[in-house]
Amino acid sequence: AQTVTQSQPEMSVQEAETVTLSCTYDTSESDYYLFWYKQPPSRQMILVIRQEAYKQQNATENRFSVNFQKAAKSFSLKISDSQLGDAAMYFCAYRSPGNQFYFGTGTSLTVIP
Amino acid sequence: KAGVTQTPRYLIKTRGQQVTLSCSPISGHRSVSWYQQTPGQGLQFLFEYFSETQRNKGNFPGRFSGRQFSNSRSEMNVSTLELGDSALYLCASSLTSGPNNEQFFGPGTRLTVL
Which of the two residues, A99 and B35, has the higher pLDDT score? Predict the structure, then answer.
């Protein structure tokens, strides 16, 4: 069965600094999708970034980028120039070819002014 | 374009009762997925509906069921409620089914079972 592990329940970062959130997953599939979602205190989940497993190039969305290591089954999220609005719970998610979603337990990010 | 809407936003029920939650997807989206979010178990996939058919199902008991209507609106039903069913239930919609489709989440329905 697929599992997604986020080993950092809480992280903090100084405003304008860079922080990296870790995620590892387990799968026997070769083609799948990985996502990072953000859930602010208002509770609405927002897609931050996604990565297709068949693409070797790491995805980037403005200040957000990933380090995708397929062999190591690792998918970390880097947030550059952290802003107060980045404070939220971040979930790593794996989507199988069969379209089932598996989420990690989340990392709570605090941004310190 | 309006986002995903879920009704009601908050609900309080007692053990043994049943409950129905509603989700209206973004206009034009035909796929609706449901998730349960609890502090202990995190986010867990319940099921996905596409064109009124259940496409995928997570590992939940048969007390959890759903359906989708021709206008893509979806309902989720939980029968014989248990205390452990207290959770935030999230609905997400996407244009079509398939792993490369971006999902847009609603604000959730907070269910409390007493």
Answer: B35
Which residues are CB-contacts of B76 (< 8 A; sequence separation ≥ 6)?
Answer: B20, B21, B23, B34, B46, B64, B65, B66, B89, B91
* Positive/negative CA dihedral, A85, A90, A94, A99: negative
Report yes or no: B76 and B21 within 8 Å, Cβ to Cβ.
Answer: yes
Selecting from A32, A44, A103 the residue whose C-beta is nearest the C-beta of B99 gives: A32
CA angle A32, A96, B79 (to 5 degrees): 160
Strands in chain A per DSSP E: 3-5, 10-14, 19-21, 24-26, 33-39, 46-52, 60-61, 64-69, 74-79, 88-95, 101-103, 107-112
Q: Which of A28, A20, A96 is nearest to A58 (CA)?
A: A20
Query: Can you spell out the DSSP letters for A70-84?
Result: TTTTEEEEEE-S--G
Which chain B residues touch A91 with a CB distance below 8 Å? 42-43
Whole-number mean pLDDT of chain B? Answer: 94
Residue A41's pLDDT is what?
A: 85
